[in-house]
């Protein structure tokens, strides 16, 4: 019980630090969101009228007062679940804007993360089981080579080949102009076609980390004394690989997978920008570009809380899966 209480305390302390940094970092950036909005709405090059700038600041509800006062107001708004109005999508609230983008990211990144983890872990375990063989060399060398390819290059190559040259899939976006978001087969089929290329670009490099991590951990575990003892007792090689190798080697991958799932809410800025996909990553890029403090802070907060919560749950799972962790901390 002390192990889990200690982990909960670390989680709460880290969460407070993350919330505080989430408040400070956007305010340390140069620039004024009101000026950015006026520049975006107007093509004039002359100086901005101070009265007009003050009116826009009041309209947006940009924070004023000293930093400590802003911090307490920020914590009070968080406690009430109020995240403010988006400067970029005024007059829509941050909650409305994020609720529109979140399903796209959850489906795209969530599905590809699960597939990447399953495929990568299985291939890594197979490579370790057939270590020093041609299969092992093909999997490890192939993964290492693919991992050197620039991610943006893969996305652009997919667009050029399958969207522009072959015209099999759309170049970008979440759905076409002929369909309307809703619970209809036309919309789902259209959204699926638009998600194929972004999903493939994520799946090309997604399993590589899981492959190499699982393979190296499993090879190391199969060289431990308990694995040698199992071989000396005459246990089948496959049972040793599964029970003594894969079962223990998968523990670090479980932690990494939990953290990867927690970071889904942040989206993937690069892939969503390349494919103009209407997810959280593209939303974050727009928020940073437009000095949209409320939207930026909320996206950072969702991502941070997701990662911290996933890390906490992974620690708890570790305590159940590997009792040695609890014994070490108790000692």
Descriptive overview:
- The protein is mostly helical.
- The protein has 14 helices and no strands.
Features of the shown structure:
mainly alpha; 331 residues
Assembly type of the shown chains?
A: single chain
What gap, in angstroms, lies between the N and C termini?
A: 14 Å
Number of strands: 0
Give helix % range.
Answer: over 70%
Unreliable stretches, pLDDT < 50, 5 or more residues? Answer: none
Structural class: mainly alpha
Mean pLDDT: 78
Biggest sheet details:
none
Tell me the series of helices and strands, N- to C-terminal: HHHHHHHHHHHHHH
How big a fraction of the residues is strand? under 5%
Shape: globular
Q: Count of DSSP helices?
A: 14
Rg: 24 Å
In short:
The protein has 331 residues and is an all-alpha fold.
Topology record:
Layout lengths: L1 H27 L4 H9 L8 H11 L6 H13 L14 H36 L4 H14 L3 H15 L19 H38 L2 H8 L4 H26 L6 H6 L5 H10 L3 H29 L1 H8 L1
Helix pairs in contact: 1-13, 2-3, 5-6, 5-8, 5-10, 6-8, 7-8, 8-10, 9-10, 10-13, 12-13, 13-14
């Amino acid at each position: 019980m002390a192990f889990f209480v200690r982990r909960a305390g670390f989680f709460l302390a880290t969460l407070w630090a993350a919330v505080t940094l989430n408040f400070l970092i956007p305010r340390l950036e140069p620039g004024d969101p009101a000026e950015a909005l006026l520049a975006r709405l107007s093509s004039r090059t002359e100086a901005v009228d101070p009265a007009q700038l003050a009116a826009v600041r009041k309209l947006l509800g940009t924070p004023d007062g000293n930093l400590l006062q802003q911090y307490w107001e920020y914590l009070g708004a968080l406690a009430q679940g109020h995240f403010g109005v988006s400067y970029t999508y005024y007059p829509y609230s941050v909650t409305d804007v994020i609720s529109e983008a979140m399903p796209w990211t959850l489906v795209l990144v969530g599905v590809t993360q699960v597939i990447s983890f399953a495929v990568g872990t299985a291939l890594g375990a197979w490579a370790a089981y057939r270590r020093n063989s041609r299969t092992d060399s093909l999997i490890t060398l192939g993964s290492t080579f693919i991992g050197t390819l620039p991610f943006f290059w893969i996305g652009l190559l997919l667009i050029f080949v399958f969207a522009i040259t072959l015209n099999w899939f759309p170049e970008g976006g979440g759905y076409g102009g002929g369909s309307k978001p809703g619970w209809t087969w036309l919309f789902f089929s259209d959204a699926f076609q638009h998600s194929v290329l972004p999903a493939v670009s994520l799946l090309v490099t997604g399993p590589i980390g899981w492959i190499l991590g699982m393979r190296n951990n499993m090879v190391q575990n199969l060289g431990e004394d308990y694995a040698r003892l199992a071989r000396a007792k005459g246990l089948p090689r496959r049972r040793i690989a599964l029970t003594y190798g894969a079962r223990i080697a998968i523990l670090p991958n479980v932690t990494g997978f939990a953290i990867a799932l927690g970071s889904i809410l942040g989206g993937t800025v690069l892939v969503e920008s390349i494919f103009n996909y209407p997810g959280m990553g593209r939303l974050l890029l727009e928020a940073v570009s437009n000095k949209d403090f409320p939207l930026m802070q909320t996206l950072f907060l969702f991502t941070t809380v997701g990662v911290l919560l996933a890390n906490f749950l992974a620690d708890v799972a570790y305590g159940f899966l590997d009792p040695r962790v609890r014994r070490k901390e108790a000692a």
